[in-house]
Amino acid sequence: MTMLQEDIAPDLRLKDCPDWGYLFREFYELYRFLPSGGSPRIRSHQRTVREALRRGVSKNPVVAPQPPADKPVTAHLKRALDLGREQNLAPVVRALESVTPLLSWQYGYEKVPKGLSGGYAYAELCGPHGPVVIDEVILGVVLFAPGCTYPAHAHKGITESYICLSGAVSENHQGVYAPGSMIFNPPEHLHRITVGDRDPALLAYAWIGDRGDLSDQKMVFTRKGR
Ligand SMILES: [Fe+2]
């Protein structure tokens, strides 16, 4: 007789995991109160993210923990959290700290670009693949080691925002983003990120797209650097 997962343990739901619930409340507030700088396009993206999150959370979604995993860059996580706690998005950083033992840090590429394996990893917080199963929006965090360059990449069918929680980054040499800043990347927009030499950088990200694009999303690097 085959044993179904449901026979072993009932589904874990968001209401059983208050730390995740508090974290999503902080993300909701971020996407409600962060300035949009007068850009209707960014304001609309912020609204789309928070509405998708609100709908997802209201269904008391399944929590399907991903196996906890570290990468070399996670040796910089404590420093990133320590600095983030001193900055203006400290409430988000503290809520994130509560779930850090559960995070599954990944590269997201079958073959990690040369030089990037020690400098980068991301962990999902919600999305079609969990850990909190919400199909309309992917939220996650990405951690960069000091001096890391994240090569040019684009996301097919995905509108992306990054919010700096700790450290400072530049995108395409076109601006410097410190805690509280948002970077907006429309679908197919090629972007390359650089990180300061002294400290790591921790960014939150949100991805919005069709359900198909969200669940199949693969990072794509271009061959040409910039
Ligand atoms: Fe990106």
Explained architecture:
Helix 2 (18-33) packs antiparallel against helix 3. Helices cover 28% and strands 25% of the residues. The termini are far apart. It has one domain (12-221): Jelly Rolls. It has a six-stranded mixed β-sheet with strand order 2-1-3-10-5-8. The protein has a five-stranded antiparallel β-sheet with strand order 7-6-9-4-11, with no helix packed on it. It is an alpha+beta fold and 226 residues long. The longest helix is centred in the first third of the chain and has 19 residues, at 40-58. Bound molecules: fe (ii) ion. Residues 153, 155, 160, 185, 191 line the site of fe (ii) ion. Fe (ii) ion binds at residues 153, 155, 160, 185, 191.
- The name of the CATH superfamily reads Jelly Rolls
Low-confidence stretches: 219-226
Determine the fraction of residues in helical runs and give it as a percent range.
25-40%
What is the molecular shape? globular
Please tell me the CATH architecture by its name: Sandwich
- Strand coverage percent: 15-25%
Number of domains: 1
End-to-end gap: 57 Å
